[in-house]
Amino acid sequence: MIRRYSLILILALCAHSVFAQSEAERDSLLRQFDIDEVEVTARALTKDVIVPQTLKGEELQRLNALSVADALRYFSGVQLKDYGGVGGIKTINVRSMGSQHTAVYYNGIQLGNAQNGQVDLGRYSLDNMEEIALFNGQKSDIFQSAREFGSAGNVYLTTRKPYFRPNEKVHMHAQMRFGSFALANPNVGFDVKLTENMSLTFDAEYVYSNGKYPFRYKRVLPNGETAYDTTAVRQNGDINAVRTELGLHHYYRTTGFWRVHAYNYYSERGVPGAIVNNVWRNGERLWDRNSFVQGQWQDEWFDRWSTRVLLKYANDYTHYKNYDERLLPSDNEYLQQELYLSLANKVQIFNWWDVSLAYDYQFNTLKKDELVTGLTDERFTRHSHWLSAATAFNIKEYLRVQASVLMTAVDANTPRVTPGIFASFRPYPKIDLSINAFYKQSYRYPTFNDLYYTDMGNASLRPELARQHSVELAYRKTTKQFDIDVSASYYYNRVTDKIIAYPKGQQFRWTMLNLGTVKINGVDAKADMSFFLPMRFVLRTRLNYTYQTAIDVTNPNDTYYGHQIPYIPWHSGSAVLSLDWQSKRGDHYGLNYSFIYVGERYGQQENIIYNYVQPWYTHDLSLYGEWGINNWWLKANIEINNLLGQDYEVIQNYPMPKQNVRCTLSIRY
Amino acid sequence: MHTIYKILGIFLIFHFSFFISSCRHDDVIYPTIGTPVTEEVREGGLYVLCEGNMGSNKARLDYINLETGTYYSNWYGSQNPTQLKELGDVGNDIQAYGGRLYAVINCSHKVEVMDRQARHIGQVNLPNCRYLAFQGDKMYVSAYVGSVADADLLGSVYEVDTATLQITREVKVGHQPDELCIIDDKLYVCNSGGYVTNRYDSTLSVIDLASFTEIQQIPVGINPTRLRVDDQKHLWVCCQGNYNEIKPQVVVVANNEVIQRIPMPCSNLSIQGTTVYVVDNEQNTLNTISTIDYQTAAFVFQNSNQFEHLYGLLTTPDALYLTDAKNYVSSGLLYCFGYDGRERWKAKTGDIPGHLCRVTGAYSLYGDTIPVPDNQSPFIHKVYDYLPGMGQFVNELPKYEEGDDAASMCRKCEQALCHNAKGTVSLGGWGGYITFSFDHTVYNGEGCDIQILGNAFYMSGSTEYGSSEPGIVLVSRDDNQNGVPDDTWYELKGCLYDDPLTQHRVTKTYTRTGDTLQNPFHQHPYYPQWLTADQYTLTGALLPPQSAVIGTQNVQRILEYGYVDNKPNSDIEGTSFDISWAVDETGQAVVLDSIHFIRVYNAVDEVLDQTGELSTEICGAIDLHINN
Fold first, then answer.
1. What pTM was estimated for this model as a whole?
2. Chain A within 8 Å of B351 (Cβ-Cβ)?
3. Cys-Cys link to A87, which of A29, A70, A239, B583 (CB 3.0-4.6 A)?
């Protein structure tokens, strides 16, 4: 009874609710209302204390990427775990701290998974995405929700926002994508200007792939003779997924707006599983429904005081069934619910000094039904509170500082306080050269699985602590001929009380323990360059390189003490090269080449030959053209991925697709 | 615009450097490398089946040759490199029966059938199979699921004909059957029910082997997993309890009745004589129970051992083997203990060493039985061939006497070289060689393995020049096990191997009639007088000339590494050789775990005015792994 009541309440609240704001969003807001940008930026900090890595708009569309996960491979310091295929799980790990230390925000509100803390970024389509940004540490703007101060790395996904020229009322787009492995991926959407200040957006997408891609395993003897060489087809990797999104935006006065966004994703997929000796097919199936409604309302008072309210209700259903009769029949249903509320305030005390205060509350539940045994487990609930205070100030034009402190209280656990301090120093006013540094602590709380998983969970787990230290040198120069943006950073992170599964006594029984310390040292270097060549050619390059050591320093008696932790390569990097040409009447043509390299690494804690995983690198190529006819734009894009057909694995025993092709046709008005 | 092109150039260099830095290569299946773990000599060998974690496909079969005390990791992989995706996922049991080895690979749903040297013979596909028992020509396998899916999740025991490897019969038993054993015509299997928490089974199923039907279920206690029989035909069962308020116990069954319940933690057990050894992996202790009066006692480890998670156990008449699975996701340890509680040795294993199996007859990597003399000598034991190229010291070092033949010349070489005699044998002109062995297999250990002595020296005041008469070392493994060096030779790659001036596969024919090179100091035939043929041909590599005249001295440039008679014997490192340098004919590196034969030949063809031709001299050899 209580549950039903709260649901009604949530829905009622959602009617008033709204959304968070990113830099890109602010830009579009400005465009929409034609506000003089100079006036606004003069009041805020003129430059990011934390320089994010971003991919947006056209650049995002040009990449050979289907999902957000594919695009994040082009960021430095990011390691992607990819189990292969359209339906395979894809998670990211920023600066080796573990995927659960990275928070992913969808239009400003965190995507949660209280059950296992993992966000499968393969499920988030790029088709409706306007910008992807990655902040190490935290976002530059202190006007943020309290929880945003709480993660070690933050990925912000911002969906497309409507933008109307005077006299425009409707925009629409339709797109069809075909590809290898029977990929069919139609997408339609429209934006409607309801009133002068209110607009509605809608986007829907369907994805199908049979996931039957060929893969090859080859081993040779030391003398070069082939030991075995076999090619098989990945089975049970099919996916059917439908995504629908609806957004309502209302901007009033010049300062306030509210937005509501509803998201629904439904999928059915096979879980192709590990390829091991004598097992070439697995029988696990997964049905998912992820729905959420979130809202944001924001306004400004007395020219100095900004307020933002965020609200979200999420309802995620998962049904997992194993059809493999050789294994334990399992047929489980999980229902997760999340209610989230955030209130943030920022006051500008002086032109050079801002302070903010925010409070967030979240309630999570998980219900597990074992259909085979008829057991239902409803122990999983969690109340979380976050309270943050932050300040940002400038000292002349040279130094900008941001400091924050966050108190986190989860259930009855002792509240934890974590600080963060960020500084950006710009020695020469005329040269865009800055030295940025930060120190931050953040906790990752145990998930429901960590705490309560059958037999394995350990309710007395402490949160895992990450301490980050980072220094960055960034330089940017823009001329009429080129635009370069280069930076290099060094970081030292230490993760303590790492939550790991550890066998407890009897037979094969595991428990979760706070057992593990990892020391991470890394260097990220990146260079984004655009060259504006004659004849309306533009050449863009984007280079990233990361070197990192992430070593286990838990216990000197362990055989893996001082070894690189699993699946962290020492070297990784990417290069994107694209050449665009615009015709006199505005048609675009382009060729995009991208290269991704992930160096050698080990699949288990011990760095021994039996755990060695080979480097992998893929070359992708795409060719596109865009033609305008009156107000209609027609676009065609052909992508060839893994051009040289490398047989590689990101995760051992999970083969990745060889060469594959995608072809996209879209029309927009 | 220039800036742009500069930046572009930097970009291209940056990009290109990706390719050079670290590329993929073919995944190589390396043969195992033997690691000496003990000097104690026991009969036969021991197989260790490491489970590996689910989904990792890292089940690994290791082997210890107890006669040489050598541990071979990934033995199965070495023996069967062509097996697609190796041994499989999660090893669960291994047993030797009727001249074969059988290994249950749980998540690969198969029983792998091998010969005693772990070479693949065939496999039996059985869903979710767990443990093995044998009788007559039949193998019995417990499996968590039957061939037809069962709504009650009952398991099965399969009967497999060991000759045809076909399933002959199947019987449904209780939930998740684990270990099984046979007494007379009855098969007993413990139904653990451990698959689904809180729904543990608690029975033994009794199966009549004649009719292959379940004739009885004996209630023993919650969650029985281990089952062994002693020589009084009593069954010993480990009941694990529910890991909660129902505590574990060891239950003794006689004549289908429980006759004793001994409450104690028990995760594994093994019976030796009248004593049952029980592993408790919560406290990491080993307990003993007398099978006669059922009294329990703690097994006392004399060395204080820090086990992390005791897991596998095997008792044999002369030793007790225990494994530590550590954190279950990294290499484990295998311990060998005496019954006096003294730790004899330990060895690093694969992930989760769980299952052990003792076999008689010991095998080295390629199937031959290694002879083990009582005291291994670090020095040359036997000379097989000696054929010098024509030269001034031929017929002198060693001395040819009327009536000598090739065999007696070899004995003379042995007198000069064996047992640290420190005599000198000259290999004569280019291509001349000697082949010898130690009294044991030389293992490819860490760093250099063999030192070969010569008579090189530095010119005074220099380590760059001196008297260097480089000889190349070849090694060979007795692959065909016939005890003579007629197997493939591999060259130990020295520093000049890839030198463009080095000529490989050179041949040279020496004839009796060409014997005209006598210099004033050596007025005797240069042609090997014990040869009956009038000519012989030698083959090998020819190193570029290294001679120089410094002052009035004829000297040679000292080579960096990898040649015999190139550096003074006092430079142990400079006169030692690593089996890992081995390359095949094409120059491809080969991995040899051990070698049996060594050949050294003179690799230079130079005649100097003052001192005659350069010829490699050899003054002995030492196996560096043996203390002398």
1. 0.76
2. yes
3. A239
